[in-house]
From TrEMBL:
It comes from Janthinobacterium violaceinigrum. Residues 671-757 are annotated as: Disordered. Pfam families: DUF3362, Radical_SAM, Radical_SAM_N. This is YgiQ family radical SAM protein. Belongs to the UPF0313 family. SMART domains: Elp3.
Length: 757
């Protein structure tokens, strides 16, 4: 077994290799750790007896960099890396990022835009006869026609653009091992068409066999012709010529025996028919120009995501079809253990020397305990990539990894920075009945409420926490992954265990918003669940004698969000004494349901028609900036755009220099030379200048309120007492951290890896 998978011919020579069986091409720096896809896949294939080499961040301007390890015997495996290359390189405002966390010294511009497509094309140029297999989250999220935020258009599946032979999506381990064995046995890649979790190009109308059927979903259902009802009192001569029975030729009567089938036989027949049915989605040429059909295709696609009942799907791209097999079955616990227990070096490749790699430093003392998420948040891509069914590791496997970190990872001082996954507290949670799980077609197990069939027992996770912190040499085990607090409140014992032992001063949670209209488009619980969790968190922190704080995450400009929604969120933040340091504007990522709302202004959570619900969406740059500014109302740079927005909304009463206003009327840098005496005379209520006065009305918003306000066409000057003076705001704690970047007041380290659920 190689200490590191080779990245050069010299390393291959040292291992005695004349050729690699598989060469993995990645857009990330090579770090031999199970949190990085290229290492996990490489070690998995190595354990099967194959020689695997890695080409990391190659120069994509020519094919020479793709020949550095020679010609692979079986195939090139191409990935963009742990992140989608476009998300990695551009902000939500489409601005180029100044650094790259997955590159040595965080150096930017080390990967191309749409890296999977570019790398696959260069690999094909290097050796035209070598099969190309693409994967990673970038390929997974682009397996069908998808809206591309950065070019603001619907793009084709990545398969025809990359010219790849096969795309593997989701949890790829099982499909990748089977594929590699079959290629090694001499089977042609064009003949491998039966692996779950794979997609490929086929001739138009292709089916795996004559016994397959097609479910046509290429159009939106519309009411058919309705025949008028005849009056029973109307004397109409019966037209027997139209009756097929009367005109049928007299033929010999055929008597067929009636066969009574058992329930098991009927179910088996129905399942066989279901498993051999492919769902035809609207073609690329249709969805690229028709928002309604795009939204319809998105809804159909997501309804076919449960591996227990999902059918194959097909979508026309010109004269050929993109065929998608059903998603992969979840890995069993022993399979998960096998993947994570392999002999990783747990360090960056030696060729990077002492280079600073932020992504590695973030996770080097953390442990991944599970995969998947059943939350179904519409803005998140975890479900599309990892699936809705939780795949957990065993306790012994997790505890062994903690010991490996203690014994092998340089710089370890006794603190595990995180022990979680996509979500901190879904470890070993599952549907109570397997039969229900495999037949379920819900998009979320926790929205609009927690499913009665979902097991929410946190006892196994509590046991894991206790055993982890009991390991000799472990001083602290922090939980830094995003917490699903609506699940946590079902287990007060878990919340107490978490708060007492596993919070390093700050705990990240993600309400995402406060307003029901926006939350319904996110498929997130109401703010009441946050309040319930906060009460538990504060109570158990007090009992533990610790000063600890919740750091809530929010999203600006999410589809379904209005200016009034963002104002109410800002007022909630002020009432609760939050001053956020870092905020996030919604970024439409490929295939997410929220992205469908952004692009089409339709709601794919419900049946889509031309007349179905319209989702208001902030698309213009100014509106998106305004929504983001509401989240950071305390920032002087945001005051001018917020003043303009509040006046236009008829909420000039929230502008003033008192503590009860949202933003001040002036600052020293924009006072325009007014003397202090003149400024002091510009008082209204708690200090609102005349230019911001508005007429009193019935629809008024208090801190945290939700009443609608009329739009003002002009600024009016009648006096209106400040409505905020009636609202009690919390006293500002002397040492309370007010932003994500603040240092925790309690000792024990800070969360090292971001997560939001």
């Amino acid at each position: 077994m190689a200490p590191f998978l080779p990245m050069s011919r010299a390393e291959m020579d040292a291992l005695g290799w004349d050729q690699c069986d598989v060469i993995l091409v990645t857009g990330d720096a090579y770090i031999d750790h199970p949190s990085f896809g290229m290492a996990l896949v490489g070690r998995l294939l190595e354990a099967q007896g194959y020689r695997v080499g890695i080409i990391s961040q190659p120069d994509w301007l020519s094919a020479d960099a793709f020949r550095i390890l020679g010609k692979p015997r079986l195939y090139y495996g191409v990935t963009a890396g742990n992140m989608d290359s476009m998300v990695n390189q551009y902000t939500a405002d489409r601005k180029i990022r100044s650094d790259d966390a997955y590159t040595a010294n965080a150096e930017p511009n080390k990967r191309p835009d749409r890296a999977v497509t570019v790398y696959a094309q260069r690999a094909r140029e290097a050796y035209p006869d070598v099969p190309i297999v693409i994967g990673s989250i970038e390929a997974s999220l682009r397996r069908i026609a998808h809206y591309d935020y950065w070019s603001d258009k619907v793009r084709r599946s990545v398969l025809p653009d990359s010219k790849a032979d096969l795309l593997i999506f989701g949890n790829a381990e099982r499909a990748l091992v089977d594929l590699t064995h079959r290629l090694a046995a001499g089977e042609a890649i064009k003949d491998i068409r039966d692996l779950r979790g794979t997609a490929f190009m086929v001739p138009s109308g292709w089916l795996p066999g004559d016994d397959w059927g097609v479910h046509n979903s290429t159009r939106v259902d519309v009411p058919g012709k309705i025949d008028p009802h005849y009056s029973p009192y109307e004397m109409v001569q019966e037209d027997k010529t139209a009756c097929a029975t009367e005109n049928a030729s007299k033929s010999a009567e055929v008597i067929k025996p009636i066969r009574i089938m058992s329930r098991e036989e009927r179910l088996a027949m129905a399942k066989e028919k279901h498993d051999k049915t492919v769902v035809r989605l609207p073609a690329y040429d249709v969805v690229k120009d028709d928002p309604v059909m795009y939204a319809h295709a998105s809804r159909v696609f997501h309804l076919e995501s449960n591996p227990g009942n999902a059918r194959a799907m097909v979508q026309a791209h010109g004269e050929r079809d993109v065929w998608l097999n059903p998603p992969p079955l979840p890995l069993a616990m022993d399979e998960m253990d096998g993947v994570y227990d392999m002999n990783y070096a747990r360090a960056p490749h030696p060729s990077y020397g002492k280079a600073h790699i932020p992504a590695w430093e973030m996770i080097r003392f953390s442990v991944n305990i599970m995969r998947g998420c059943f939350g179904g948040c519409t803005f998140c891509s975890i479900t599309e990539h990892e699936g809705r069914i939780i795949q957990s590791r065993s306790e012994p496997s997790i505890l062994r990894e903690i010991e490996h970190i203690r014994d092998k990872t340089k710089g370890f001082t006794g603190t595990i920075s995180d022990m979680g996954g996509p979500t901190a507290n879904m470890y070993r949670l599952a549907c109570k009945e397997k039969e229900i799980e495999v037949s379920c077609r819900r998009l979320s197990c926790v929205y609009p409420s927690i499913c009665v069939n979902l097991g929410t027992d946190h006892s196994k996770l509590i046991s894991l926490y206790r055993k982890a912190r009991a390991i000799p040499g472990i001083k602290k085990v922090l939980i830094s992954s995003g917490l699903r607090y609506d699940l946590a409140v079902r287990s007060p014992e878990y919340v107490k265990e978490l708060v007492t032992h596993h919070v390093g001063g700050l705990l990240k949670i993600a309400p995402e918003h406060t307003e029901e209209g926006t939350l319904s488009k996110m498929m997130k619980p109401g703010i009441g669940a946050y309040d319930e969790f906060k009460e538990m968190f504060d109570r158990f922190s007090l009992e533990a004698g610790k000063k600890q704080y919740l750091i809530p995450y929010f999203i600006a400009a999410h589809p379904g969000t209005t200016d009034l929604d963002m104002l109410n969120l800002a007022l909630w933040l002020k009432k609760n004494n939050f001053k956020l340091d870092q905020v996030q504007t919604f970024m439409p990522t490929p295939m997410a349901m929220a992205t469908t709302m952004y692009h089409t202004r339709k709601n794919p959570l419900r049946k889509v028609t031309a007349d179905s619900e319209v989702v208001e969406t902030a698309r213009s740059g100014k509106i998106r900036r305004t929504h983001k500014a509401f989240l950071r109302y305390q920032d002087p740079a945001n005051w001018p755009i917020l003043r303009e927005a509040l006046v236009n909304m008829g909420r000039g009463d929230l502008i003033g220099n008192g503590d009860k206003h949202l933003i001040p009327a002036w600052t020293s840098s924009e006072s325009g030379g007014l003397a202090a005496g003149e400024r002091s005379r510009q008082t209204h209520g708690a200090g609102t200048p005349d230019k911001f006065k508005v007429t009193p009305g019935k629809n008024r918003i208090a801190l945290g309120g939700t009443a609608a306000a009329p739009k003002a066409t002009a600024v009016e000057s009648k006096v209106r007492p400040s409505i905020l003076s009636t609202i009690k705001t919390k006293a500002k704690p002397a040492a309370a951290p007010m932003g994500r970047g603040a240092k925790p007041p309690a000792k024990g380290g800070t969360p090292a890896r971001s997560g939001r659920r």
